[in-house]
Protein 1
Amino acid sequence: MSTSTKPSKLTLAAVAKEAGVSTPTVSKVVNGREDVAEATRARVLAVLEKTGYRSPLQRKSLPAASTVEAVFDSLNSAYSVEVLNGVLEQASVADVEVILSVTSRQVGPPVSPEERAQRMIDERRSGMIVVTSAFDSAQLRAFQRRQIPMVVIDPLNPPALDVFSVGASNWAGGKAAATHLLELGHRRIAYIGGPAAAECSQARLHGYMAALMAEGITVDHEYVSSGPFRPENGVKAMKALLALEDPPTAIFAASDSIALGVLAEARRQDVRIPEEMSLVGFDGTHQAEESVPPLTSVSQPLQEMGRSALSFVLRQVRGEEVDSRRVELATHLVVRESTAAPRTSVLWRNAARTQRR
């Protein structure tokens, strides 16, 4: 079989002959059925890729009104809203309809990965953008088996190498945050991270650690904690840090939401920021600009991430060649009013001890 054969004239029977299997077996692979041996599936997929065969879903993609589903954990964070705005902006340019799905609002019995993936095909969705921690590897594989174009934004866990993803330079952002505090003169710098297993949180932590170690500073385990990307994590961690014999003079929070929790607890305990403690967030959302004081934050190009994700999905739908399956956009530090040089103050230390009691 020649690889120059036009995909529109290519038949399943021809693919089956090339792969040395039956036509029903090729049909099962094309439709994402699981009852095919992995070695056989791999052989069929190799022939499909070589010949440029397009699945029925792909051949129907991008009609006059193409539809892409965007899946979020929730929309109660500035991070999610910014990403969604980017998706919608690009959708308007590309004349694509976006269907929004929020996993925290779903009702009824749980839907299996296979059922959800099949529903995408039944409803003729062109592709999917995933901005959620609810989709595990089994869910992602179910979409892949059905050749559903998909992009994961800033995944909490490292996706398989063949999964398209869009993210930001988290390590560089973490290093920039810690370096800023070090340049101000801080040496006792805490890190309040997101979920311990989250890839983005680990990268930010490692960037923070690299900056400290470059200055010969040992990372104190009492200054490092993890939790959800939520304000309550910042509240809890701030309480623990203020209870230490030597509380930090600065905190790097792995998200603006966590930093807002830190600010709230600082107000409750009469800790002045930045006079008595500096604070840096991560995300660069509008919340950082509007907080009191305005928050120094590592800005992620959240809207650009959303725009890139949709473009990435549509390129897959059209069958275009993509140089890399991972797009990583640059972060940059925005200095506002929540950071300043540290103050050595007996009064501050006494205040911390009083709070512990």
Note: Confidence is low (pLDDT under 50) at residues 1-9, 57-65.
Protein 2
Amino acid sequence: MTSERTPNEALAQVIALTGMTNHALAQAVQRVAAENGDELQTNKSTVTHWVRYGVKPSGSAGRYLAEALSRRLGRTVTLGEIGLIEPTHDLLDWRTDTLSALADLGRIDTVDMDRRRALGTAAYSLAGLALPGSSWWDRMAEQGERRRAGRAVVGRGDLDAVRDMAVLFSGMDQRHGGGHARTTVVQYLTGEVSGYLSGTFTDHQVRRGMFSTAAELAYLSGWMAFDNGEHPTAQKHFTVAVKLAAEADDAPMAAHVIRAMAHQANDLGHHRPALDLAAASIEGKRYTEASPRERALLGVVHARALASTGRKKAALRALLRAEDDLAAARPGDDEPGRVFFFQEASLAHETALALRDIGDLPGAEQQLHRSVRTRKAAKFTRTHAVTLGYLGGIQVRQHRIDEACATWSASLDAMNGVRSARTRKAATDMRAALSPLRQRAIRSVTDVDTRAAAYLAATS
């Protein structure tokens, strides 16, 4: 293994910038690998061999390494920057034909993780966050009009049926988390719906509607993967969703997906790319043609990205604008079904996270209480549990342990039957926050810690 004696100076320089030890970096790489279903056995000796002897990381380990370093530095670290070879094949290429990309998505999503790594598709790609230019959007809309029609006739009834299925799957995701039924969504999208997309449409509106609804299903399968911690899979589904929305010439649908990409990037610590995506989601027709409710959703994610990059005043302005947009939504508005979940409770939840990130803990706590108070917990169970998790975290940061434990106990109650990486993270955060208190025999602390451990064991 140590026969290559040429040190990787480029990698050494980037690691030095992070201030991480080899042990800490190895653990960070393992965490990224775990997101991809890969049990990578890296340790400090592995990192030493990469740096001191120039040993090349095997399989997808190089991508995991670049991602771990990127998260630490808060900027994109390419493989080339750390002395590794960039891959020549990327399924996130925006030039790939939409229906071909959809077919590839179905094939890759159903193969095992070893095969995905062999295909080079098992890592989250920072390069994939760069959206194509305006000419691409124009070409995609024109391409949708010119597609060669197949023999099967697709009419309004077919479109209504697909829309009904999208509503059904969305409701399941909100109640039970992304760990339930995602493969069913993928199979329906890449099977039956894909067949419709290749058919002959009865009119222009049916064609646009079918491509838009397919985009919504691709977005939903991506969101479910994101919610379950499968970040590379989520990114690929989001990319296909954007392509489908572009062929439908549906700017608000595209914005909805780009907003999700920004949300994911922000959660992964890629704050600058997240802000670029969030800003793109509110550009031009993506915002002006959206319903008031969807504008509020786009705006609050933009506010969160601004907060994450330290732009406090701009974040507060964006929050006020999102509040105004949601206030303008009225019962009976002509709005897409995909925004059914975004109500006062959701706005308050996202507002709280933005306020937390700019250091306003009392304001964040107030908004989280508002979110808990106004949410229909039985319908939006997963987010209710996560909101309570955040609320307990803010309470414990203000040294109110008993109150935090009571909040976390309610959060764990809500997690029953939910399979989501975000609820698992909430449980992990509980245990981490309570770790210094475990030896004090405080009953509320012991109860929450024991329940959180049991939830993690049952859902891992």
Note: The two ends are 34 Å apart (CA to CA).
Protein 3
Amino acid sequence: MPDAKSLDLSRLREIAWSTWDPIGLLAPGADWRNEPFADEYDSYLIEAASGRRNGWPVEKVTDYLLSLASDHMGQSEVSASAAEATAKAIANYLRELDHG
């Protein structure tokens, strides 16, 4: 399994900005790379990826992202499908790292 240093933060950001933007920072059609808030979700993404590497099932990663959005970010309408898509995309990315 790759070590923490091998995580590509840009790849994690690409996943998050395309599937999970719980506070709605990115305007439709905008590119996250051009935004000053591109790193807004970094710590959460690293935690989600680390948890998955340490054996969290996709469901636990999904629950973690949902909890962040509702409890930490105060969002009353949380998209379970976006959190699940993000969790699955992170799992797929880590699988690519392991086998790539």
Note: The chain has one domain: 4-20+39-99.
